[in-house]
Amino acid sequence: MTSRFPNPVRTPQAGKALAAATVLVSITLTGCTDHAAQTTTRATPVRTTIVQPRDRQAAITLTGEVQSRFRADLSFRVSGRVIARTVDVGAHVNKGDVLARLDPSEQQADVDAATAAVASAEAQLRVAKATFERQKALIASGFTTRTVYDQAQEGLRTTEGVLEAAKAQLGTSRDALGYTVLRAEADGVITARNLEVGQVVPAAQPVFSLAQEGERDAVFEVYESVFLNQTESRRVTLALVSDASVTATGEVREISPAIDAKSSTIRVKVSIEKPPAAMTLGSAVAGTVKAEAQKEITLPWSALMAAGRKPAVWTVDPKTQTASLKPVTVRAYEAGQVLIKAGLEPGERVVVDGGKLLSVGQLVTEEGGQS
Predict the structure, then answer these.
(1) Residue 44 near residue 355 (C-beta atoms within 8 A)
(2) If you compute the radius of gyration of the chain from its CA atoms, what whole number of angstroms results?
(3) Residues facing residue 80 across a β-bridge
């Protein structure tokens, strides 16, 4: 068969050009092959640490307020218009001190009316006694009837009852007059006031709050999550927020069984043992309680990654030096570190820096040595 294409003419120049092109292609292919090999075998430098659970004792510190253990809301027992107020919030009062006064004109009028009623009853009693004595003498002589005598005796008893009722009403009126003056029931400090001069206050409406002197509590509003940590004991270390050198110790005395609807907190009261003089009522205090010591795995924030929507960390296989992503359970997040609850075993090597550039099965190398 005859070829349709003529045989090319090979000149010396054409041969040299062909040889040069062949060498260039070979060099290019060799370079690509070397680069691909380097890419697949190059290890990513990372920094790692070996998982070692350590005994850890956390401390919980909250801010509260020093309050009196015994507090009382003071109010008038009668209604009326306020004509005087002698104390304000923060004032220290002694038992019996006058706090406020009401206009006593109405109560004084009741006392006057009750006094007049007593005087009238006494006069009636004198007449009834005289009548009874006369009838008693007459019946003994036979100059009166038994019916008249019985009526005189009954009149005497009725008059005696009227006098007793009048005296009781006089005592009530005098008490009401005394209730127009509000006095402190114990030594303490006024912590709240709800009246002004000229104001008309109804009976039993609280107008003052009195924090009594004596035993004191540090009161804290605690979130429910704090109770998830088991504390070492019920002892609490207290310190003034304004002066940390003023300290005291206390013990949990009362935990409210209900959660406050507004703040979603639980009220905890700590009895203060021998409170210093500087730890006055209303002072802000910091209370610290230690949790039970337990073994925990702590890792820096940089070690935490994600596997889907779950937290995870990169671990390194010591035999193959390859990385794998392992899901973990986090107990708590703290400043600069996370506490791992489950997912890691002691002795595992975890990547703490450089994990953002890793993929599953990637070869890694220790940067700056193993930690």
Answers:
(1) no
(2) 48
(3) 201
Q: Which residue has the tokens 């924090």?
A: 211
Per-residue pLDDT reduced to its tens digit, 313-371: 999 998 899 999 999 998 888 888 888 888 888 889 999 998 888 888 889 888 744 44
**Bridge partners, 236 (sequence order):** 250
119 residue type, one letter: A
CA atoms within 13 A on the CB side of 277: 0
| CA 279 and chain centroid, separation | 19
CA distance 69 to 271: 8
Report the alpha-carbon distance of residue 364 to residue 354 in Å, rounded: 10
Q: Label the pairing between strands 44-50 and 364-366.
A: parallel
* Model confidence, pTM: 0.58
Q: Which tokens is 16 given?
A: 């040299």
What does the alpha-carbon distance between residue 5 and residue 192 come to, in Å, rounded to a whole number? 116
Other CB atoms within a 10 A radius of the CB of residue 110 amount to 18
